[in-house]
Amino acid sequence: MYKILWVDDEIDLLKPYTLYLKNKGYEVDTATNGQDAIELCEKEIYDIVFLDENMPGLSGLETLSKIKEVRPNIPIVMITKSEEENIMDMAIGNKIADYLIKPVNPSQILMTLKKHIHKRDIINTQTTTSYRQEFMQIGSQLNNTVTYEDWYDLYKKLVYWDFKLTETDNELRDLLQSQKSEANAFFAKYIKNNYLDWINNPDERPLLSTDIFKKRIFPLLDKKEKIFFIVIDNFRYDQSKLLIELLSELYSVEKEELYFSILPTATQYARNAIFSGLMPLQIKNMFPELWVDEEDEEGKNNNEEELIKTLFNRYRRNNTFSYNKIFNSIGCEKVIDQLNNLSGNDINICVINFIDMLSHARTDSKIVQELANTEAAYRSVTKSWLKYSSTFGLFKELARRGYKVVITTDHGTVFVDRPIKVVGDKNTNVNLRYKVGKALAYNKKEVFEINNPQKAMLPSPNISSTYIFATENNFFAYPNNYNYYVNYYKDTFQHGGVSMEEMLIPFITLTPKK
Hints:
By secondary structure, the protein is of the alpha/beta class. The protein has helices at residues 15-23, 34-43, 60-70, 85-93, 106-116, 119-142, 148-167, 173-200, 212-222, 237-246, 267-276, 280-286, 304-314, 329-337, 339-342, 354-364, 366-371, 375-388, 390-400, 482-489, 500-503; strands spanning 3-7, 27-31, 48-52, 76-80, 98-101, 227-232, 251-260, 321-326, 347-352, 404-408, 414-416, 418-423, 434-437, 441-442, 447-450, 466-470, 474-477, 492-494, 504-512.
């Protein structure tokens, strides 16, 4: 039974209301002054308090503050005769849940109770009903998804329901998870049937990593826009929704879309493709000094600034730019301090590495594994970082200075839980979602196989090199030391392969609010 405290110096006049609520199944206590109300709150736990604003002795606002000291999370509804703005401002500043103007009627009271006591139950019921209806539609859509636009739409729906069912702690989350797994199985087939055609037919394909500057950034520069281009490494679409929510007071969303990361969905390939406007094999052939092979120990993304220069030169663009890579809060503060010096550039490009660091820490650190043990928890950790990090300070400062902010990523990441066996020689790369090497042994039915890397515009370390990509929630494990690899990497976030989470990535354009 829900307990209500109603505080009013004329409480006897409200007896019809209290009787009405009791008949509806609520337990109602009353008080005629603020001091009694505070003492009751110290003794009892109430689900909601209705508080008169104008009382002798302690005023409603004073009583509100005292109750909040005792029960900071209790919803308090202020009831007042006055509609003066300053009273409302003070009440809202003291974190009232709601307010009602006298005279109130029973239906207003019931609506307030539904809003503040029963809201979660109502939302949970409505969400359950809505998803059950949508479940059949999504299942039907899966069987009719034939274009990349269809996949954008389907993935957005699945992420939407992931948020909704997580917010309400709904028992249908397991059903959604099975539907996401089914969708990723269909997605893998779609990529197998279309990816190589996309690479060889640039005019008849979705937006890919290589197209970002040519088709999205250059048109903004041609409009003389003041741009800050931020690439957040390893940033999923669902995480980007949280970022948009956090930035909603600072920016308006001018454009939000999905596009496809190239394969492999790894920094060495996908981010270099963004900054060069070229596929990996083209980079290696045209700028061999800027490409780092898999077996080389040199950092795979150390030449990004040089690749950007080659991109601008190829398109004969004279735009001035800066390039910064941020690994921590100190690096972010340095960029903020340099904004005056950067203001003369046509575009400032910034790579933020925290999410990628978090993903890898999730694999290697037991503490981070506990903090981010599910996709919802992983999102929550991401949101906390975004909200309290220097990165948020950077976004605030860019908004203040009037920058248009463009945000994207090189690839996403997927939660893996099913090992599949692969055998390779000592030169085979170590990534768990893709392998490249010669004489690889694997089950062809379990992977997306590219026997001729040139067709996918990928470098071939050896004449007989093959690329294989894990699909769905699979990850590669070697038969030697198999149990160790499985136990260590199962239920971690990985990237490099074929899944909606890795390949369908966000591109967001934000305009600062004035």
